[in-house]
Amino acid sequence: METNGNKKMYITGVSAFVVGFVLSWLLFGLSGQSPSQTALPAEEGENSEFTANVAAIAGTADDSVSASNQPAGSTITVTVHLSQPRWIAIHEMADGAAARILGAQKFFSGDHTGTVALLRATVAGSTYTAMVHQDSGDSGFDLKTDMPLLSGGVPVASSPFTATVQ
Known about the structure:
Strands 2-10-7-4-5 form a five-stranded mixed sheet, with no helix packed on it. A three-stranded antiparallel sheet has the order 1-3-6, with no helix packed on it. The longest helix has 27 residues, at 2-28. It folds into two domains: 1-32; 34-164, Immunoglobulin-like. By secondary structure, the protein is of the alpha+beta class. It has helices at residues 2-28, 46-53; strands at residues 64-66, 70-71, 75-82, 86-94, 97-107, 110-117, 127-133, 150-151, 154-155, 158-164. The protein is elongated.
């Protein structure tokens, strides 16, 4: 009888540990993402915070990004020239300005052509922009610390494009 009670206690303890570990990983473990992970889309309220913080990051003319019109889908092809490791973020356009981020990819210094995977596909006929963001030095993209490179409040390096019909 006592062995059965010990078994139940052991199973309960192990279950509680596993649930606690999973919850901790979900809440705190996401900051340990590898550099190839994409950004999470901004929530509605984050756009205003995003706009308020962007003026703090100064950019240089040494960084550039180019994205041409391309078929709607879940990846965007970009060509970059970067002076140091940077993030390329794909933004939706709203009222002529960069808005929510659909995805981001880290690129290292130099000239590269690569893709940015998106968490939500682009829509044919809609306009987007590829924009250079700073790399704050951690291993993942963070909307609050990896801000766009600006000069006089204007993005230093961005490239608008339209998603076309496939």
